[in-house]
Design goal:
Length: 245
């Protein structure tokens, strides 16, 4: 019994550290959203601010500590949706950013149907999509991750908002069909998550931080996916739609 209690305490201690990990810093989040043409780009750091009061209820939406180091599948994305805005350190120790992206869009659509102001849900979605490309949010929160997390969060923070072309040059078209929107989106979420986790493994194996060039490519993945989502909801100006096509 003492052994079990000790084991639980260790797990909870580790999880409390993991829950405090952020992803890209504020200017980087803003730059990703601005690169897509999203009118509300200036709000895109807000979900990190919300964690001050919402704590782990919000924090768990920002990462997936893939402790088993498995390949992400679209079904894994769908399986996480019901965990949105929930926390359970025992049953859900790894977080659920994959499902949070789709769940936040369901919340957006629900509020739209009921006539409520819904755009803040898109801001949350934009933030989660931005976090999806952060490599250390897609691998286990181990000693390497903890030691290197902050440096990688801020690898381009000081300059990226003034250099949007560093993101836009790495953007590419993504097709999300209206009839199969969630299925296509789940597939694309899994694709970006897998690219991110593989870079995370590379960084860990080489015991180093991202280069700025690696970061720009990652930001391009997030911006490309976010732009496709915004296009689906007609939230991108025509000029932004054609800019990288």
């Amino acid at each position: 019994m003492k052994y079990v209690t000790l084991k639980i305490m260790i797990v909870l201690c580790i999880l409390s550290l993991a829950s405090q990990a952020t992803a890209w810093h504020d200017q980087t989040h803003l730059a990703i959203c601005k690169a897509t043409g999203f009118d509300m780009w200036y709000h895109c750091a807000g979900p990190d601010i919300a964690k001050i009061k919402a704590g782990n209820i919000e924090s768990y939406n920002h990462w997936f500590n893939n402790s088993a180091e498995v390949e992400i599948t679209p079904q894994m994305v769908m399986d996480q949706i019901e965990r949105y805005n929930k926390r359970n350190k025992i049953l859900d120790p790894e977080g659920h950013i994959l499902g949070a992206i789709i769940a936040s869009l369901r919340a957006y659509e629900k509020d739209l149907r009921s006539g409520k102001y819904a755009l803040y849900h898109l801001v949350y979605c934009a933030h989660y999509i931005s976090d999806l490309s952060m490599p250390l949010h897609n691998i286990a929160y181990d000693d390497f991750n903890e030691e290197h997390h902050n440096a990688n969060d801020g690898i381009v923070e000081d300059t990226i908002l003034k250099e949007p072309e560093k993101i836009s040059k790495h953007m590419y078209p993504i097709t999300l069909r209206k009839k199969d929107f969630e299925a296509d989106l789940a597939r694309e979420i899994a694709r970006v998550a897998n690219l991110s986790r593989k870079l995370g493994y590379k960084l860990r194996a080489e015991k180093r931080d991202m280069t700025k060039q690696e970061a720009y490519i990652q930001l391009g993945h997030s911006a490309s996916l976010l732009r496709a989502v915004l296009q689906h909801y007609n939230q991108v100006p025509a000029s932004a739609k054609s800019a990288v096509n």
